[in-house]
Amino acid sequence: ATVCLDSPKIYNRGLEKRLISSTIELFVNRLDSVESVLPYEYTAFDFCSEKTMERPSENLGQVLFGERIEPSPYKVTRVNSNTNFSTETHRHIKSNKHVDSNTLPIMNSLVIVLFLSGMVAMIMLRTLHKDIARYNQMDSVEDAQEEFGWKLVHGDVFRPPKKGMLLSVFLGSGTQIFIMTFVTLFFACLGFLSPANRGALMTCAVVLWVLLGTPAGYVAARLYKSFGGEKWKTNVLLTAFLCPGVVFADFFVMNLILWGEGSSAAMPFGTLVAILALWFCISVPLTFIGAYFGFKKTGIEYPVRTNQIPRQIPEQSFYTKPFPGIIMGGILPFGCIFIQLFFILNSIWSHQMYYMFGFLFLVFIILVITCSEATILLCYFHLCAEDYHWQWRSFLTSGFTAVYFLVYAIHYFFSKLQITGLASIILYYGYTMIMVLIFFLFTGTIGFFACFWFVTKIYSVVKVD
To answer: How far apart are CA 104 and CA 28, in angstroms?
Structure first.
């Protein structure tokens, strides 16, 4: 059983020699097992229970994790002089050995980021500078006919991508997830979402996701309009319901399994209705509002005009074909996060408390930079090979990091966990697929907007007739 302490007692600091005793009430939240991901209420079995005390209130995050807080007949009598209990707990947490084990991986990730930054800087400051200078010096028709490299595709580089509707919807949802993740981790770093307050992190993330429907609708609508799309009703409906609907459908199936197994993690019907109400009554209207303003604005102005007839793409080598580039593009971002991913999975599935939000926020920044730089680098190589289909490729290149995430989660299941039982296995992979989808949208959005900024920048400084 996992035992929860109530609020720490603040002891008298003025009495140094006199011993002060205080009784701390103990609460129990759930029963766990290393062989199952199904938590159960403490009173589900024939243990002692306290019927006279009232159950403490729970936040949404505790309900989602199945932590039904129950009073217990047990109490702890603590003898103390002038020591603050919360200070002792904080000191114990800070001295945990996991802090040291994160230092080397973080430094390794920083080295990777610096290496990538140097490569991108070399390309932008040397190669691009030479390209732009050479392109702008071509004044005669003979010189213009000898154009080569990325300038050749200036009339096609902003051509609308195929399936632009789906891409814009993904980017809208990815923007929503990106802002939610950034704000949640920022507040966690400031100490507002302490792990001592169980469920606070999940509650904050869900509330932020609900309130961030406006940026999702705006980004999806503005990009879809820039892609030349006209089915604005379909766009806003897909933005509001496609990705959230997939997540909710997966979650609902997992909840049915939890209901069937009698687990305390099964969300009560009333809470399920409340989640749906937040989605339909707050998130969906906010998405519609964002889409309204997105379609009301003019489309994004590109620095070069698009030709009416698409340019034929020459035969590509193996390394400049889309699929090998997409596979290679996700390796470096995943290499920056996989150590931290181990601790996150431990906190979810091995019932360990995660408290290293400072490290996690730093890894978040490293991930954003690495996804951006790796995607920009590959985008430049493809443009030099006269392949101008960069929109979907930039999204999938950094989004492929989620595939490595899935592979690592499978490896973690077989190497670190002792889970048995069909229900527990289905639950593990069901919840893993939700995390993979969210991570795919998150990283893919980073890659797209990084390449969008890069392509817009380089074609805005080159002279085009």
So the answer is: 36
Contacts of 344 (CB under 8 A, 6+ apart): 354, 360
Asked if residue 39 and residue 149 are part of one domain, the reply reads no
Q: Does the residue 263 lie in any domain?
A: yes
3-state secondary structure of 76: strand
Q: What integer pLDDT is reported at residue 153 of this predicted model?
A: 84
Contacts of 41 (CB under 8 A, 6+ apart): 30, 31, 68, 70, 264
Residue 93 lies in a domain: no
DSSP string, 57-69: P--HHHHHTT---
3-state helix vs strand vs coil in the chain, percent to 5: 65, 5, 30
Residue 87 falls within a domain, yes or no? no
In a domain? residue 278: yes
Write the secondary structure of 185-251 as one string of H (helix), E (strand) and C (coil): HHHHHCCCCCCCCCCHHHHHHHHHHHHCHHHHHHHHHHHHHHCCCCCHHHHHHHHHHHHHHHHHHHH
Q: Exposed, middle or buried by CB within 10 Å (0-12, 13-18, 19+), for 196?
A: middle
Pairwise pLDDT comparison (52 vs 116), residue with the higher score: 116
Identify the H or E element spanning 79: strand 70-80
Q: List pLDDT tens digits, range 285-320.
A: 999 999 999 999 888 888 888 888 888 888 888 777
Q: What average pLDDT does this structure show over 132-157?
A: 67
Residue 15: pLDDT band (50, 70, 90) is very low
Count of domains forming the chain: 2
- How is residue 97 written in tokens? 């050995």
Q: Find the domain containing 49 and state its range.
A: 2-81
Residue whose tokens read 């040397």: 126
Measure CA of the first residue to CA of the last residue in the chain; give whole Å: 73
pLDDT digits (tens, 9 = 90+) for 365-386: 989 988 998 899 899 888 888 8
Tell me: do 68 and 123 sit in the same domain: no
Question: What pLDDT score does 101 carry?
Answer: 55
Q: For strand 36-40 and strand 70-80, is the pairing parallel, antiparallel, or unpaired?
A: unpaired
Same domain, 146 and 233: yes
Of 55, 81, 107, which closes a domain? 81
| Best-predicted range by mean pLDDT (210-219, 264-273, 331-340) | 210-219
